[in-house]
Give the backbone structure.
Amino acid sequence: MNNILSVENLCLWYGSHQALKDINIEIPEKSITALIGPSGCGKSTTLRMIAGLEEISGGELFIDGKQMNDVAPKDRDIAMVFQNYALYPHMTVYENIAFPLKLKKIAETDADGKTHLKKMPNDEIDRRVREAAEILDITQFLDRKPKALSGGQRQRVAIGRAIVRSPKVLLMDEPLSNLDAKLRNQMRAEIIKLRQRINTTFIYVTHDQTEAMTLGDRIVIMKDGVIQQIGTPQEVFDHPANLFVAGFIGMPQMNFYDAELTQENGSYAVTLDGAKVILSGEKQANLKKNNVKTGPITLGVRPEHLLLSGSEDNAIRGTVDVSEMMGSAVHLHVSACGRDTIMIVPTTEIESSAAFTIGSPIAFTFSGSTAHLFDRETQKNLEG
């Protein structure tokens, strides 16, 4: 698959403060790439630099093989959907969507072979506006002003104004953050359908990992202006590059423990509290390949991967602090190993809700295939 957009060693300085540090991203054509991270990590700033709304301090930006560092935003063949919709309140929906087309000049060659720039014909503008409106299911609102629309409808109009130009790259900056939870879920599905219909390249900025995981073909995770990991949603979930990614991706957050990595008869095992768990064959191979030494490590286990133990032998012991019935599962907050542990236990595995009363003892363990091992000092994944 060809890359439509490349960012090479991109940097941004505000005086003596470096906001972005050596950003390198390859965006495949007709893909959705989600930029995610906590507030202030640089994801929206990266998007604004791609759009041409922030000046590039260092590095290079290429769109369709052409360097864009000094190209004006209007000439980059991109469109952007903003968090606050940015619709013109005095214009109808039709006029809002048509506006960028009325500004656009198209090249035409005359009989003498000379090229002239002229405005797009009104019938072509009308065709494109109505096609975008039909795709987004807003045809019935074309004569309305933005103030007469709901938040979800306004967002569709903003998307319509962006896609009507058929841009090479569509940039979306937290487009669903102003919507309520139900509408966010609905619009997320709409964007997935839209992607299949307009067949363009999306770069999508969000702080919501559900959006990133469900929409993105690839996820770029950022922190403090630095890319932490790039991968598919499954890759970053199953193989987080470091402690930050492991804690950031997944809800509820991964549990972390101070544990010991041991080796016996050539096999690696993790020791924690009263439990000793031999690691899976894949993890054994990865640790041996990286020549990982035994000693203190940070162990990570996701809440859904902690397993109830029938006895306290070879198990981690704790006390139930809070029990939350969530329907198909119970979320347990457990005091274990000197910290709060969250467990997700399917209701099918529970004989009675009374088993998890506050203050009751609990024993649990984990599988050698679901353990994540991190270096205590560098915080990097020991499997590489």
Observations:
- The CA atoms of residues 15 and 57 lie 11 Å apart.
- The chain has two domains: 3-241, 247-374.
- The mean pLDDT is 92.
